[in-house]
Amino acid sequence: MEGLLYPITLTHYLVLGAALFLIGALGVLVRRNLVIILMSIELMLNGVNVNLVAFSGLHGDVNGQIFAIFIIAVAVAEAAIGLGILIALFRNKMTVQADEIQLLKW
Known about the structure:
By secondary structure, the chain is mostly helical. The protein contains 3 helices and no strands. The radius of gyration is 18 Å and the shape is elongated.
């Protein structure tokens, strides 16, 4: 084979990143399970990372890749803290549904 029939362009990466972000945003808005909401937030962050790395490759610098690494580090911390809070809420309330947890209500 001499090469790709259809080369992958910046538009493909932007569509992929937008699709990941949109699926994550819909997951946050529609679902009530806190585990699904945390996974949707991670999906949104990964959509942003795809766009950052794509633009970084387009411009030929590493700034987008460095930002993506920082976003991955923040996502790991968010997942660890979020799951810790989720386990504590489940032990107290025996549910992980977001609409059934009224811990901060007066």
